[in-house]
Structure formats: structure tokens, C-alpha cells
Amino acid sequence: MTPITCEFVLNGRTEQVSVAPNTTLLHMLRESFMLTGVREGCGHGECGSCSIVVDGKLMNSCLILAVEVDGKEIQTIEGLAAPDGTFHPVQQAFVDESGMQCGACTSGMVMSVKTLLEANPDPTREEMKEALAGNFCRCTGWELIFKSVEEAAIAMRQGAAR
Amino acid sequence: MSTAPVKKIDNWPNLIGKKLPRVDAPQKVTGDAKYAADCNQPGQYWVKLVRSPYPHARIVGIDASKALKHPGVKGVLTGEDFNDFSWGWMPQTRDERPLAVGKVLYYAEAVAAVCAADEATAELACELVEVEYEELPGVFDPEEAMKDGAPLVHEQRAGNLSWDFHMDYGDAEKGFAKADLVREERFETGRVITGFLEPPAAVAMWDTDGITIWASKQSPYFHYRHLAACFGLPLSKIRVIQPFVGGGFGGTKNDSLAGDFCAVLFAKRLGRPVKFVYSMEEVLTTCRRRHNFIVDTKIGMMKDGTLTAMQQTAIADGGAYTAIGPLTMYLSGVMGTLPYKLPNFKFDAYRIHTNNPIGAAMRGHGSTHTRYAAEILMNMMAEELGLDRLDVRLKNAIEAPHTTVNGITVNSCGLKEGLQTLRNSEAWQNREKTPKGGPIAHGVGISGTSYLGGARQRGHQSCAAVVRLCEDGTINYLTGASDSGQGSDTVLVQIIAEELGLTLDDVSIRRVDTAVTPIDAGSYGSRVTILAGQAAQKAAREIKEQLAEVAAGVWKTTADRILFNDRTVFVDGDPDKSMPFRKLTQIACYDAAGSVIMGKGYSQYDLEEYDFEQGYGNPGVSYSFTSQLAEVDVDLETGIVNTTNFLIAHDSGKPLHPVNVEAQCHGSASQGLGQALYENFKMDQGHTRNPTMVNYMMPLATEHPKMEVVHIETEDPSGPFGAKEASEGAIVSTPPAIVDAIHDATGVWFTSQPITPEMIVTALKEKKSREKKANGKAS
Q1: Which of A94, A128, A141 shows the shortest C-beta gap to B707?
Q2: How far is B452 from chain A (nearest CA, A)?
Q3: Residues B402 and B474 in one domain
Q4: Do residue A144 and residue B249 have CB atoms under 8 angstroms apart?
Q5: Does residue B336 sit within a domain?
Q6: Residues B555 and B703 grouped into a single domain
Q7: For A98, which of B21, B38, B704 is closest by C-beta distance?
Q8: Which of the ends of chain A has fewer CB neighbours closer than 10 A, N or C?
Q9: CATH fold for the domain made of A4-79
Q10: pTM score, whole prediction
Q11: Is some CB atom of chain A closer than 8 A to the CB atom of B705?
């Protein structure tokens, strides 16, 4: 298959890459950019572990072709912390509240929570459940993930108020 | 004179029992953590497996010529390439081969492997390998498989008997004769899998110095032995490096896979690194599952609820191979005498081969089936005798110290306190006030269970630790223990930091590299905190002793007066004599010609040998106790169950890292919830009809109740700082608590897992028509 060149902004930098037209965005990110923080669980859009943000929208990167992001802006877990390394409030809350165990879902979960809190700064538990229903977690039983979301929400509201 | 504040030892412990972040959290929230699929080597090839379309078939021939001609294909392996190698848990049960030889015994068993320059080519070329099969009649139900004339999965195993296990303690018949009520029921558990999110993966290399493999294993040293045996190399030439592990839960990642052996053999033959990553479909179709059990259970009970005897006969679907099945049979029986006083116990278990995927270990190994049956039957009998479910449990609950009829010795037990916690809860107190009639019926259920910690498996048991002191006062901790997500890395680091008066940041854990770290049996049977924790503690103490000698020399005192706290070393009771830990380290390392300060430790316990064949003696070093309450809302119209609340009163001895203990209880209960209500492989003549995450239905965020964990603190002499197990108790306690809650809501007892909405609707209809008939007769 003839490779296609596409250009996009990835974690704040403009990038150009040549990819086979059948390459998924997930595989391009992992293989061409070594962004292995974008995890592959099921590969079929069922687990959410490959969740990333494309033009502000949460997406399963396993369900998008790489060529579809031409001209778009992509953020992965690797691009979430501030350039000086300061964690995003969602990352910090997951650290503080132990909102993870094995970590296989964590990258996608953190991106999903960030997107949720940007849209809804003070979600109820029911709203969290709905918003995170596309992110599978086998380890935590969700209690500490919800707690992390609550702490992140407080931090983000305080950040916005300042 | 030093101005460093002198700390008294009375603020000890500093770290144990505190809320601390996990040591792996920063790597996990940034995506930095590298799992096996994230490991790559320059020039690596890829391997994919050719899998059987039949659950039982003779392999007539394999023609790889088309695949080998395909551009990019580097090689093809078949079963014969591994010579006579087979593996299994015990010498007499080594019945599994990397690739099938002669016959396939379950659907999608690997028959050949293709290596190619890239993953897509390898996958495509698998379809070019032509395998001719002669399909054989299969057997898929364990009770059918036991009958005369049933197809034999292994020709030499008559009646398809894989393993049987028998226990007979006290006199069950006498116990039943004495009882006021004897009842017998059949219970069945479902076909479930561990459900880790990270599919197994590895990258293997071979050179003149042996094998190096980055593999997703929760017991990397089992794999190390398998590779040495398969490839005829000394253990010193086998280097298994453990990346982060994305969930284990027993079974698959405690073992080796077809992909592992094939990657290594290709690496040897082709001189290139070789990688594989299983797909989720391969995981859900071929990886090891929990056995599904039929448990016929008979209990004798006095009018006041006192248990007189229990007899259980268990039949387990073992699937095609033995794997760790004998241990499953042992554990499903040996734990039957906990957590209630039981003077008479008879147990007979039969593991039966079928042409289904392989049954193996999973969290709550073994006892989850038999305890589930016993818990529900106790409640059925309490109902029949008009007794309170909680009273019956309190009446029979053991208290420490206790020795069971099969020689299990319990040194600490928080069961009664846990059950009291349930009793005092609002949910229990208000249970009669909640609506029952519909449309939504509320129910409250309870259970009381026990699980072993520090599993004593056969063979090598010990955990070891090496602690190296760096000259700047920081620590490298080398462990053979594996954290597959449960948080043990954090707890082990915490133990070392606590012993040396340091912080978590001062201790860097170096995960398993079999060329460097000390041997360890890995993660299973809730053994890591207890046994690797003990090893870590001893290793840290060895360093402390060496440093104390140096400090004693500096201050002209005796080593026993030297204390370590807050990164400071000081003389007990002498405020003038203290210095930073870092300074003492430098003195110790650079004194005279210089020295190397290391500590080592390994776990030991003072327990008698146990009898695996008879189920006598201790299967673990200590025992946790879990009392659980579950609340459900049952929609009587649709049969949909909404679990709203779990209260888990768990005795993990001293909780070293309380947040981790709670997290383990949450996760365990979550898997128990899946088993009780949602998860079940739909099998059709050996084929798995729902091998996707959506159709297999593990619970999502939306299915989870609120969970509260109450720590029931006890002191157990065998674990570090008094710790016991935390990760498996709640998977045993959750399903029976949910069944009990559904009964409370609907008046119907369900005896098989999972309880689906269809089952509830059907049962309620039947109940209604029975009641109608009864009323008709009465009027």
C-alpha cells in the first residue's frame, strides 16, 4: 500500500509522517512516535484504554485511521503534564488517591476524566459512571477512580477560580 | 554538637499504616510505565499462531510451503520442532506442549507458528499454513465426560479423570445423624476468566549467552524454569525480565504460553529478536479460565443453627490439559473447614477433562466455589429453621486460636468482629423496612468467608530480597516478587523504608530480572506481602545491623542503642549523638579501604509439613476473614439487578498500606460481582461464542455499587508487622452475599452463577404460579 503523508499537531508539536492508509492512529502513535503510553487493550473500541483527545474530543485511537487526523490536533497521555513536568490535576489526583492498580487502563482513563471534567466541572457519581462507561477497568472496582475524579474536579475548579 | 532533632522511637512506625501514594503511580499516570507490548528490539520479527478450528481433531498433516514462500515470512514452526518437551505443574501432569502434536484437544489450540518481518504479514501468512484435520467426537460437559463410552480427551486417562482429591475428617455420617436438619443442594459456578486488560506479550532474544525475554508474567520464575527445560539450558542462561504487568489474577500469567516458546525458538533459529502480542480474542478464547464447578453440598444443622457436618462432592470442568488443576482441587476442599466450627467434613473432588479451554487458577482459587455453595446452603437452612442468618454465622464463627479438623491452625481471626460490623450497619438495621413488593424490590445479603495468605505451594516457596546501600544513603531493592497491579511494590518499599527510617523516595525497587534478582515463586495465593515482605524486612535489618556497628564505633557505644528514624541515625537517649543517615552511609562506605553494604533476607516460617494428598495441615501461613454485606435493587418486571452497596469488613491483620488493602477488597469484590451477575462464556460444542469484552460482559463503571471497606485489625505473628492477606477474601465473599441479597429481595434462591435477568423473571413467574396453585388448593 502506498504510504500517505499527513501532518498534524501532536502534543503541541507539528509533526509530519508517512503512513500506510490502513494504519490505525493507535499503531501510528505507538510505532512512529513511540508513544507507548497509548495502550492497546482490545483493539476494537470496547475497552477505552487507547483513549486520546482529537480536536478536543475523546476518541478510541484504535478505531480511527491515522490518515484521518491530517490537519487535526492530537493530545495523548504523554502530552498532558505541563512542559516543566507538573502533573495535570487529573494525573495528580490519580496519584494522590491511588486511582489505579495495574495501570493498563490508566492512560485512557485519565484522558477520559480530563475530557469529562472540562465539560462538567462537578459531576455526580452517576454522571461519572455514564461518562466513564467506555473505559474498562478490571482492577479497582472503581471506588478509588471515582474518588480521584472528585479530587481532580475540586482541583480544577479551584484552578479555574484563581 | 549536632543540632539534628533527636527522634524518639515512640513515633514508630512512620510509614506502616499510613496513606501513601503508590510508588508506581507517577509512571502509570504519565504513560511512562512500560509493559511487555511496549518493549521493542531493533530488527525484531513477529510471531503469530495458527490455531485449530476444531475442539477435538487429529492433525493429519501440516503444509507450510505456501506460507514460507510468502514475502516477509521468515519461518514456520510446528509441534515437532519442540522435540518431546511438555510442561505442567507436577512431573506426572506434564501434558501440554507449546504447539499441538498429533491431536488438538480444544478449540483454537495452537498448531503452528509463523514468523515474519512484521505483525500483519505474520497474521496473513497464518492463513496460508494448510493444516489437514480429521475431526474427532468431542466431550464438553464434565458429567457426560465421566460416563462410560464418552470420548477420551487423553487416551490414558480413563473416565476423563484429570485429578481427584479426597478428604474425610471427623465422621460426617454421625454428624448428619445427630443434626435436626439435613439438607442437600446442587450449586454451580460459571465459566469465567481473570479479565486482565493487558494481553500477554513478549520479546525474546537468543545469543551465545542464552535467552533474554521481556514477558508479561506474574510468576516470571516459573517461566524461567519452563524455558530452561524446553531449550535445555542452565537456569543461569535464562534471563526473564519483567516489565510492568497489566493485571494478572492467576492462571495465564503464572504460566507459559505457546507464544513464549515459539518466540524463543524463532529467536534461536533466525538470530533476531522475536515479539508477539496476543489479541483480546485469543485471550478470551484460549487463555486459562477459572474452572466451572458443580458442588453437591450437604449440611447438618441443629435447631439453634450449630453446624454438625458438611459433605461436598465437587466436579470441575478442567478442560483439555491439567495445568495447575490439582491445586484447584486441593484448595477447593482444604479451606472447607473455615471460617466456621465444623467437627465433621467429607470432601470428594473430581477434575474432569473435556474439550473446553483449560481450567486453572484465578483469584479466590478453589475455595470460591465450595464456600459459595456452603454459604448459600447455610442461609437456606437458617430460613427453614426460622433463624437469623447473621446469628447462625456468629454462632458458628471460629475464634483464634483455632485448629480445624484437618489441621489448619488459625492464630488471628476477625470474623466475629466483622459480622458485628455488618450487624451494626444501617443497611442491616433497616433491612426489614425496605420495599419488597415491587416494582423494585430491595434486598440485603451477607456472607462470612476466609482465605489463605502466604500460599504454601509444592516445591520452592521462599521469597528473597537483596538490598544494596548506595553511598548517598539511598537504596536499591532487588526483589523476585512481581506486582501485577495489586500494589505490592509499594508495600515492599514501604517495609524497607520503615525499617531503615527512610522515605519511600529513598528506596528504588528493581523489578524481576532473573539474571540479577533473587528467585521467588511470584504472585499467587496472596503470598507477596507476607513472604516477600518478610524477606524485605530481614534484608533491611541486615543493612541496619551493619550501619549500627559503624555508628556504635563513631559514638563509642553499643550497636543495640543505635536507632534509625526520619533519615537520621541516633543514640537512644543521648540527644547529642545523631547524624543524617546519608552521612553515616558515607562513613560506612568510605571507612578505611571502603566497604560494600548489602543486606539479604528470605522468608521462612515455622510450620510443619502439610499433607497435600490428604488435605491436612496449613495451606497458607495465615488466614484472612471477610464479612460482607451486599444490597441490591431487583426490578421484578425486567429481572435486572442493580447492586447498590457493598460493605466489606476485612481482617487483613495489620493493614500495612490501608488504601491498598481497601483497593484490593474493591477489586476483588468487583470480580465477584461479575461472576455473580454478568460474566459467563457461552460455550457451544467447545466453541466460545462470546469472545469479546462487550459480549463476555465484565462489569463497567455503570454496574459498580458504592463500596465501603472496614478494616478489622488483628495481629498475626507470621506476617511482617502483623499483616495478612488482602487481595482474595472479597472475591470469595461477594457472590454468596449477592445471592443472599437477591433472595432477600425476591424470595427465590439461585444456585448457579451468573444470575441473569432472564433467570430472575422465569423464577418469579414460576413462584407466582406455584403460589397461585397453592392458594387455589387452600380456597
Answers
A1: A141
A2: 20
A3: no
A4: no
A5: yes
A6: no
A7: B21
A8: C
A9: Ubiquitin-like (UB roll) (3.10.20)
A10: 0.97
A11: no
